[in-house]
Amino acid sequence: MRISVVPTARARLRGRALAGVAAAAILASGAVGSFAQAPDEPSLFGLATSEEAPDGRMLVEADSLVYDIDTETISAVGGVVIYYGSYTLTAGRVDVDRRTERVAASGGVTIVDPAGNVIRGQALDLTDDLADGVIEALELVTEERIAFTATRATRRGGDVTEFEEGVYLPCVDCDGVPGRKPVWQISARKIVHRQGERTITFEDARFEFLGVPIAWVPVLTQPDPTVRRKSGFLVPEPSWSNSRGVGIAVPYFWVLAPNMDVTFAPTVYSRQGFLADVEFRHRLVQGAYSIRLAGLRQNSPEEFDGGSGDRKYRGSVSTEGRFVINERWNWGWNIAAATDRAFFDNYDREEGGDDIVNDVFLTGVDGRNRFDAHLYGFFVTQEDSTLAGAPSQDLDLQEKQPYVHPVIDHQVYAGQPVAGGELSFTTNVTSLSRTNRDIYEFDADGDGIYGRPDGEDVRLRGAAGTYTRASVDMLWRRRFTDSLGQVFTPFAYVRGDLMFSAPNDAGAVGLADDRFAARAMPAVGLEYAYPVMVEGSLGTGVVEPVAQLILRPSEREVGNFPNEDAQSLVFDATTLFDYDKFSGFDRVEGGGRLNLGLRYSGRLVNGITVSGLVGQSVHLFGENSFSEDTAYQTGEDSGLDGDVSDYVASLSVDTARGLLFNGAARFDQDDASPNRVEGQMVGVAGRLTGMLTYAWIRRQPDLGLEDDRSEVQAAASLQLADHWRLFGATRYDIENDNFVRQAVGVAYDDEAFSASLAYSEDKTRATGEPIDRTVFFRLGFRTLGETGGSADIME
Question: Which of these, 17, 22, 94, 624, has the minimum number of CB atoms within 10 Å of its CB?
């Protein structure tokens, strides 16, 4: 007997029989686990109304549904669409045989899972418990557009699926172009997915690039898509240099536990031997930490002549961690050290650079309020100069570094207005020690080459000894706008400091002997602005004259205490209206001051936007903090050391056509000649993207800079063709007619593959060694990872 439900039929069907079709295809393709919790319903293919359907039922749409009682088969025929939870299956025909417990689908089977993966097959024939079966012409396309195909997939034992003539594609419709193929793929005679082991094994696997097999392995096993972390070898990393020779690193990733792993990255160098490198990582409930150790016994230490690398045993240790205390607080550390300064650079360690900042920190954030505490230690990776008669600033670099124990910053904003305005408190505590003083010598070798008496001119950069300071800065300000649009901002602040200083050889560096002291700096002020809208045939804009008056006493204790955090002083348009123009807490600006400026921002009718500022600062009364003579000479040649400052200006232009310009300048207050000029242009024109930066600074003899400084930096990238680009960068010292750094390279980038080759030169070394010439290369394969290396080319 046959029971037919004629077009178009809609019913909710009890049981797992048709659900098995969708589940089997997904399991066979490797996207396992989605149906592990499928409802355990009997295999009776019954009908139910929507009101009777519990969770786990499905909706079947077809031209007809046929139930043959005699043969115990159920068929959905013509335009079959099955909705099962968040899964959708379409086919020309689906048959369920109750006696053989098999499910068959044919006529272009397509399955879409909740993650957006699409599975296609010509035909399916599976048991309804998913244990055994066959899928013909299988294709899986993931949500990330990664594809996997096979001529035939066979599932057996409910655990193992074998794919015949399988091909792995890192992308389909690559770069968003329909039909575009990736430049590489992996094909195999057979691919075996073991669901229980969660592994995929490629047998007779070939890596093909541009359709040409370039690598072959008899057997390759890797984790299946459900595994996020799996022990195994990573991509090898080659390298080459004159000192190390040819090197090859073969990393191995070892999963110790779900939250713990180790990476071994042993490297063999043809000239230096075996470098052991191991990194341990551990993730806990409240955070994570890692520890990395590296070391070797060098075969040829003499290859590193001229530095500290010519020793037999060398190595390093680095560790970092971060832990959450609660929703507001966290703490952690970043620490690295080596047996010698040159190790990180000589062996291309990622911890390298001119110096390493070792830091233990505690941070708290609550809205706008913030707390930061740090312990700092600095490990210098730059070598001392080996040049004869080298100045003091290039020697004993490590011994001149301070130990900071600690520096604490705390900023708090009042939750409610105070006298109608905003009240904030800023606190800083700094304590540090230094073994050797850091002196910048103007005439280091005493031959008068700087045009000064032999060896007499020095500038203190860091005093030896111990220095501790605690500072509190309370600021109040309120903004008023009257009926004419004038803006008045009265403000008041008071700064208080407690200080203790115990410098070694205090008199020799111009500081006071051991002593405690207190310092206070109260101030009141008013800022006035009157923005005026202007309109014309060229566009609209806002012109805003600004005046800022600050009244306060003179600075106390000038030059008696170390200045560690306020040596950087750049007077320009961005600092014109700062209440205190010193960059840190060790110095505090005193005396009455009037800051004047004119702002403009506007938009022209052609879409160009322009903004700028021009201004000047006037010292009204009291001692000018920037003209005070101290061992650090912080304010000299700053443009603020006179009663009337230099002029400062800035200009920003956006053409809205791919070209942006930003510039700033400081002009002498006597003759308006430039003392400092900086500018940058960034532009895009067709296939060309470029950046040009220019800087010119007039000589500052009081700071030991006898010559003008002028340089230009440029970088560009040219798209040669689809996916190909040429790039380069340079830094040119105009005054000395010398290219300081330069690099050029070529790169290929598409969705599945990227590669680059670059050459660079660096002439900034101070050790007398040859110029750094390095070749870099990188290869990146989507989903597989990337590899790369470098080769040093020395003169």
Answer: 624
